[in-house]
Amino acid sequence: MGPVKALSVMQPWTWLLANRHKPIENRDWRCHYRGRVLLHAGKKVDRDAMRELRAGFHPVTGERLEIEFPDEFETGGIVGEAVVVDCVDRSDSSWFVGKFGIVMRDAKPLPFRPCKGALGFFVPEFAPSPQTAREAGR
């Protein structure tokens, strides 16, 4: 088994995925990967989606949403994990708007861990913690 891969997604979409509000991630490319994936919150924020969500509306359908959001959305690191179970070109999900949808299950938030993102699925590189760096220098 190789290293765990990550997928970078703009906030607030990453938070919605990690907290099981959004079960599908839209892409314009087909995904062949299946298995556990870390959810990386990119540094860019989708301001239009954020505005709609903060106003209480689904950013895709415009319907009312009853979701309590954090005051701040973390960016530039891992914020959750999920299991990629499928890639579809059709879905009944109100969140599906892409050419393809990466279907995720068993999502959960994780403590924030900073790291750089990348396009597509990638293996995240984490900076060593100060304690690990001190131990390595012994």
Automatic annotation (TrEMBL):
Origin superkingdom: Bacteria
UniProt protein name: ASCH domain-containing protein
Species this protein is from: Methylobacterium brachythecii
